[in-house]
Amino acid sequence: MIVNVGDIIPAWSMDNVDPARMRTMAAILRDPYPVHWDRAANAAFGLEGRVINQGPLNLSYIVNMLLAWGGPSCVRRLTVAFGRPVLDGDHVVAGGQVSSVEMHDNERWALCEVWLDRNGEHVVTGTAAVALPT
Amino acid sequence: MMTEDELVALVGHRFPGGHYRIAHWENWLLTDCTGRAPMPDDLAHPVVMFHAPILGAGTSISELFTLGHAAGAGSVGLESYDWEYFRPLCEDIDYAVDGGIVEAERTTTETGAIVDRVAFRIEFHDGEALVARVTNRWKFRRTAP
Fold first, then answer.
1. CA-wise closest residue to A127 among A83, A88, A76
2. CB–CB of A31 and B61 under 8 A?
3. Is the ipTM of this complex over 0.90?
4. Cβ contacts (< 8 Å) between B35 and chain A: which residues?
5. What is the tens place of the pLDDT at every residue in B80-136?
6. Cβ of residue A2 closer than 8 Å to a chain B Cβ
7. What is the rounded CA–CA span in Å between residue A106 and residue B61?
């Protein structure tokens, strides 16, 4: 796999953030926070009728982009910060760009800037280390 | 609202510790929630490293909210994750899990709101080998500006 600094990682899109997936995810996480499954709970935040996607799911869209690019066991490190909440029905797109390529132990790593966008606005930003296939 | 001394005293708190085995069903459902096809070769989706460390360390999201004196819906938010993977994470392996709270600080935002930031770090081991480590930072909103 030939990778160069500045390469753009093919984007990964979640066209419609699905509240049913949030409910399943809440059960898997044992997450009691009603903002992910009770629409009425969010009225106090001006989000009446909407539910908030879990942070791990927001990150998962970035991870899926990396797995599609580098292979199913390529992720070595994820460092991300969460900005604005993602809501049910949102269309979000994960993106990334290679900022450096370096050897780490016996692996060649691409260090990447990564982000999750909604309507052109970054809602998650961070960096990822990806082990490149030989 | 907890005092700043109570907040700082959280640093060093250790979770009970324990073991965690990523089940096939849970990996399959979680991966489905992310919108991608099932993982190949018994590999776990990297995002299992949110809930598996918490549960494996013998704690829970609810308990973490209680430790941080969360005031209710909307008072807790994610700030950042730093997740490191040293070996492939797989289904049906009994990982040893331990961790605790590593940072706690009180901050005041530009608008005057008090926000407490708490970080916990949890490690996954397979025998002597460190498999993965997560450091998660959460923010607890104490007052509105």
1. A76
2. yes
3. yes
4. 14, 21, 60-61, 64
5. 999 999 999 999 999 999 999 999 999 999 999 999 999 999 999 999 999 999 999
6. no
7. 37
